[in-house]
Write a structure and sequence with these properties.
Blueprint: H1 3-16, H2 22-42, E1 47-50, E2 56-61, E3 64-71, H3 82-90, E4 95-102, H4 110-118, H5 121-124, E5 127-132, E6 137-140
Parallel strand pairs: 3-4, 4-5
Antiparallel strand pairs: 1-2, 2-3, 5-6
C-alpha cells in the first residue's frame, strides 16, 4: 500500500470513526492494512467498495460484490457470526470470505481447522483462507 493511500485511509478513519476508542481505531487501521495486502497477494484487480463502516470489508471481484472478514486467532475479539448472513443480504453480496490472518509462519493448521469446526464457519462463509501476512502467502482452507 502506498504511503499516500495509507494516510488518506487513516484520516478517513479518524473522521468517520470518531466514536471509536483509540484501540478500536487502531484495529480498523490494521484491518485496512490486512485488506490491502491480501488484495495485492490474491488478485490485484479487486476493488475495495467499503472498508470503514463495518468489520466486514466489501469488495468487488470481476463485477461481483463479496465480503471479507479478517480474523487473528491471537488478537481479535470474537465476532458474532450470526450477523454475517444478515450483512450479506443487506449489502447484496454474493459471497462472504473468512480470512485468518497470521503474522508468523504457520506449518500446521489444526488450530484453524478446530476453530472452523467449533464455530461452524462453513455455514456462514463461502470461502475460508489462511493469510500469512509477512510471507504474503494465502492458503484456502475451505
Amino acid at each position: 500500500m502506498e504511503l499516500e493511500v495509507f494516510q488518506e485511509l487513516t484520516e478517513e478513519i479518524t473522521l468517520e470513526c470518531f466514536f471509536m476508542t483509540e484501540s478500536q481505531q487502531e484495529e480498523k487501521v490494521i484491518q485496512i492494512i490486512d485488506l490491502h495486502h491480501f488484495i495485492e497477494c490474491f488478485d490485484s484487480n479487486i476493488n475495495i467498495l467499503n472498508c470503514i463502516q463495518h468489520p466486514i470489508n466489501i469488495i468487488e471481484q470481476n463485477g461481483v460484490k463479496k465480503g471479507l472478514l479478517f480474523y487473528n486467532l491471537k488478537h481479535s475479539s470474537f465476532p458474532d457470526f450470526n450477523t454475517s448472513e444478515e450483512f450479506k443480504r443487506r449489502h447484496g453480496l454474493s459471497e462472504l470470505w473468512f480470512v485468518f490472518v497470521e503474522e508468523e509462519t504457520v506449518t500446521h493448521t489444526i488450530h484453524h481447522t478446530n476453530f472452523i469446526i467449533e464455530n461452524s464457519l462453513e455455514i456462514f462463509y463461502d470461502r475460508i483462507f489462511l493469510f500469512q501476512f509477512f510471507q504474503s502467502n494465502i492458503q484456502r482452507l475451505k
